[in-house]
Automatic annotation (TrEMBL):
The chain crosses the membrane at residues 21-40, 46-64. Residues 441-664 form the Histidine kinase domain. The modification 4-aspartylphosphate is found at D746. This is histidine kinase. CDD domains: HisKA (cd00082), PAS (cd00130). Residues 307-376 form the PAS domain. Keywords: Kinase, Membrane, Phosphoprotein, Transferase, Transmembrane, Transmembrane helix.
Length: 818
């Protein structure tokens, strides 16, 4: 009999023995019956007889039950356990129920299989210690409601027991025995494929897949996911493995996704045995799980070697750098272009691609090589810094290849040394232009300040004579201001914003004019050598500025030869054919006249050579150089339309070569005009001058200078000066009715600038002389001040310079009609 434990001994009938109230109840029942019959029939004998018959029947029934006892199940005395037994059998656990007396009242079939004979817990085995533990747990469950015992060993089983109080009145104990799940081979393989071991298998070129007996994928490593699904994070669990594969007419196995460009695969099958299941446990999975390993089918030895040799021969002939590496990242082959681009010496071959790059990039290169070696045939770039050129990041291209034996990755490295050189030159030119714009703006503002300082010094010197206590101090202030003005001119020269007075000249004449000065500057320890070539073409440049260029280069060469040496200045012609042979990316083909200034000094380090033309960059000690010498040279040469290059080798001196284009104009054969002697004349004058200047300090000093410098004591005549803050106010004064003989105006002003004001003023006064003044260079403002009958005075200027400029501008007035 299943589902309930049946009890047949006499003790089981204790609940059916007569109660003490049974006999009184029977007598009462007999009396009531006799009374009813007597009432109905009215016969005492009939009523007494009926009552006696009721008592006799009850006595006979009790005697019969004692004489012939029947089987009675516990389930017929206590609530029906049928539903509980069915639920217990469906739970896949061994379940038993005991009452307060410790008797087994219900048990599942699995409990009988694991514990034969249906023993009542806690005495389920012959192990006394286990029985004691279960007994203590039962008492704890009666007290606390639940208890637990783990690690019960029953044959090959390892069980955990959970005991809980149950029932409507909580007068039963429910015993649940469940097996402890043991790890199986399937779990181990699943963890292997999805963990670090699976990644390492992929790096070794092995694709691994676990499938069930029905052929569906249960797990796969990243290498298979990448090649079969295109993504390393693809979810293909539960899909049919065969759907990802294809077989060609030669019975070769391929990945379906790789189509015609795929590589044949070799398939290895590893059957996986399932872990033994407990007796009676149900299995929800089909049998026959399997581990599948796929690797690329290697090509035949002869064919593979022949193909690889052919590929290597082909790669060696290509003009761009190529190399091949195997799955482990070892370099198999590299051509000459690759070695040259990587900076390798002839015959040098690295073991790994990571040996070519700096230490910080080695891990990235090694990881990229492994990734492209085992994945699908894809390509990509990795930005790296080469060991020989750590300051120039370049792109290392990688591509996965298949079917070439050991070769798995193709590496490409472009020899971009020329490209990098051009990039550096463009970056340098951009930086120099930006610094030049900044320098020009600073020089403009500084020139306004210096104009006021120098002007006030001149005004004070008019009231002092040599010997006065303040005369020397004022002269010292003016001298320092002039030095500051020279510094701003250097900034303007570097930024190519200074005022040039170009002339047609011959470079040997310039060198000859400055040679005497150079001999005094160089001293006795430095020897000067000058040589001139033949057939030199004339150039168009400012002679004074070219002299400054040669002087600055000579002074730098002298400082580079502290123990003496030789300074060589050489001029020579460079025809266009020679320029083409030089293959310079900067110097355009044309005819040039060149001057080379060379020394035998210490030389310039390579890391400094690219910075020597930057303003304020100097290698001299603090206080011994401003760093504007070479930057001024650079600005003058570039503003003159030329080019300058520096060459140096440590310990063997340095050379600066200047290329100036040969002037091709109609007046190229005319010699440079000699400098006319300066003619000094009176600076006083008469007339009304309109002064337009937005800077208050400059306007004030210019007004005083014109008033005092233009005044003649004997005739008590001079300039009458009217002032305005900007162009709009200047037009109002000009149209005020008073005749204006000269207009002096700043160029750059707010609201309305000087050229705009002059253009509107000339409409009503076409013959009005104009003198522009500005802290910017005339060349920079040439487009805006390209107006007829206009003079220009650069800032800073002295009182006498302003007076002379005003006098000269007034001299251009047309003569009044007779």
């Amino acid at each position: 009999m299943q589902g309930a434990r049946v009890i047949r001994d006499g003790d089981a009938w204790a609940a059916d023995r007569p109660s003490p109230l049974t006999l009184p109840m029977l007598i009462l029942l007999a009396l009531i019956s006799a009374g009813l019959v007597l009432y109905a029939a009215g016969n005492w004998a009939l009523g007494a007889g009926f009552g006696a018959m009721v008592l006799a029947g009850a006595a006979l029934l009790g005697w019969y039950r004692r004489l012939y006892p029947q089987e009675v199940a516990v389930g017929e005395v206590v609530p029906d356990w049928t539903v509980a037994r069915a639920a217990a059998d469906a739970s896949n656990m061994a379940i038993a129920v005991t009452d307060r007396a410790g008797r087994l009242v219900c048990a599942s079939d699995l409990f009988g299989e694991w514990f034969p004979g249906f023993p009542a817990p806690p005495h389920i085995t012959g192990d006394a210690a286990l029985s004691e533990n279960l007994g203590n747990a039962a008492r704890a469950a009666w007290r606390d409601g639940e208890a637990r015992v783990e690690g019960i060993v029953q044959g090959a089983l390892r069980l955990d027991a959970i005991i809980g109080r149950t029932g409507r009145s909580e007068d039963y104990l429910l015993w649940r025995f469940s097996p402890v799940r043991q790890p199986s081979a399937l779990d181990d393989v699943h963890r292997l494929l999805t963990g670090e071991a699976g990644r390492q298998l992929g790096e070794a070129g092995i694709m691994a897949v676990m499938i069930g007996g029905e052929g569906r994928i249960r797990a796969a490593n990243g290498a298979f996911l990448l090649r079969a699904a295109g993504r390393i994070d693809a979810n293909i669990t539960g899909r049919d493995f065969a759907a990802h594969m294809r077989v060609d007419d030669k019975a070769r196995l391929f990945l379906a996704r790789e189509e015609s460009g795929g590589i044949p695969l070799r398939l290895l099958q590893v059957p996986l045995k399932r872990a033994a299941q407990p007796i009676g446990a149900q299995s929800g999975a089909q049998d026959g799980p399997m581990l599948l390993l796929l690797i690329d089918e290697p090509a035949g030895n002869a064919g593979g070697t022949s193909a690889l040799s052919y590929i290597e021969t082909l790669l060696s002939l290509l003009p761009f750098g190529l190399a091949m590496a195997d799955r482990d990242g070892r370099v198999l082959f590299l051509n000459k272009a690759f070695s040259r681009a990587a900076g390798l010496k002839e015959g040098e071959k690295p073991s790994y691609p990571g040996d070519l790059v700096v230490r910080e990039d080695q891990a990235a290169v090694a990881d990229a090589v492994r990734r492209f070696a085992v994945g699908p045939q894809m390509s990509g770039d990795v930005a790296v810094r080469m060991r020989e050129q750590p300051d120039e990041p370049i792109a290392l291209s990688l591509a996965g290849v298949r079917g070439l034996g050991e070769a798995a990755v193709l590496l490409s490295l472009k020899d971009n040394s020329e490209e990098s050189k051009l990039k550096r030159q463009v970056a340098q030119a951009t930086k120099m232009q930006a610094i030049g714009q900044l320098a020009g703006g600073v020089a403009h503002d500084f020139n306004n300040i210096l104009t006021a300082i120098i002007g006030h010094c001149d005004l004070m010197l008019m009231r002092h004579t040599p010997g006065d206590s303040d005369y020397d101090d004022i002269q010292q202030i003016k001298s320092n201001s002039n030095r500051a003005a020279g510094l701003t001119r250097q900034l303007l020269a570097f930024s190519r914003q200074q005022t040039l007075r170009p002339q047609i000249l011959q470079l040997p004449d310039i060198v000859a004019d400055v040679s005497n000065l150079l001999k005094r500057l160089l001293g006795e320890s430095v020897k000067l050598e000058v040589t001139h070539g033949r057939n030199l073409g004339a150039v168009r440049a400012d002679p004074g500025q070219l002299e400054q260029v040669i002087v600055n280069l000579a002074v730098n060469a002298r400082d580079a030869m502290p123990d003496g040496g030789t300074l060589n200045i050489q001029t020579y012609a460079v025809p266009a054919a020679k320029v083409r042979e030089m293959r310079s990316d900067i110097l355009p083909p044309a005819d040039y006249t060149a001057v080379r200034v060379s020394d035998t000094g210490l030389g310039i380090p390579p890391d400094i050579l690219s910075k020597i033309f930057e303003p304020f960059f100097t290698t001299k000690e603090l206080g011994k150089g401003t760093g504007l010498g070479l930057s001024t040279v650079y600005g003058i040469v570039k503003q003159s339309g030329g080019f300058i290059f520096a060459e140096s080798e440590l310990g063997r001196g340095a050379s600066f070569v200047i290329y100036l284009p040969v002037y091709q104009g109609a007046d190229a054969d005319q010699a440079a005009q000699p400098k006319a002697p300066v003619r000094r004349s009176e600076t006083w004058g008469t007339g009304t001058v309109l002064l337009v200047e937005d800077e208050d300090m400059v306007r004030a000093v210019a007004e005083r200078a014109l008033t005092r410098q233009g005044y003649k004591v004997l005739t008590r005549q001079g300039y009458k000066v009217l002032t305005a803050n900007d162009g709009e106010q200047g037009l109002e004064v000009l149209n005020g009715g008073e005749k204006i003989d000269l207009l002096i105006s700043d160029v750059v002003m707010p609201n309305m600038d000087g050229p705009s004001m002059v253009a509107r003023a000339r409409a009503a006064h076409p013959d009005l002389p104009v003198l522009f003044m500005s802290g910017y260079a005339e060349e920079q403002l040439r487009k805006s001040i390209d107006i007829a009958n206009v003079a220009f005075l650069p800032k800073p200027f002295s009182v006498s310079q302003l007076a002379e400029a005003a006098r000269d501008a007034l001299a251009t007035r047309p003569a009044p009609p007779e």
